[in-house]
Amino acid sequence: MQVTLVHVRVRPESVDAFIAATRANHEASVGEAGNRRFDVLQAPDDPARFILYEAYASAADAAAHKETAHYLAWRTAVAEMMAEPRRGEPMNGLFPA
Fold first, then answer.
1. What's the pTM value of the predicted model, to 2 decimals?
2. Among 19, 43, 45, 82, fewest CB within 10 Å belongs to which?
3. What is the pLDDT of residues 4-19, one digit of tens each?
């Protein structure tokens, strides 16, 4: 399983708009054939800090996600909301298989 932890920090005034845009991306992403999980996490001590936990069956499925209309729309929508560049941290998912 291919997992990416996407670390995001948005401008404080953009938190609500980021959550709305990310909800739409989440809802479409969980319907992708290769998607296993797409969790959106918000830091309890810093509402402008998020982690997106994206799990795909394979690296090819994760790459295909980045070509979908909903991902491309999300990327454009949130670009100006970022307080710093988002950072993807690739991981190999071991359990569950």
1. 0.94
2. 45
3. 999 999 999 999 999 9
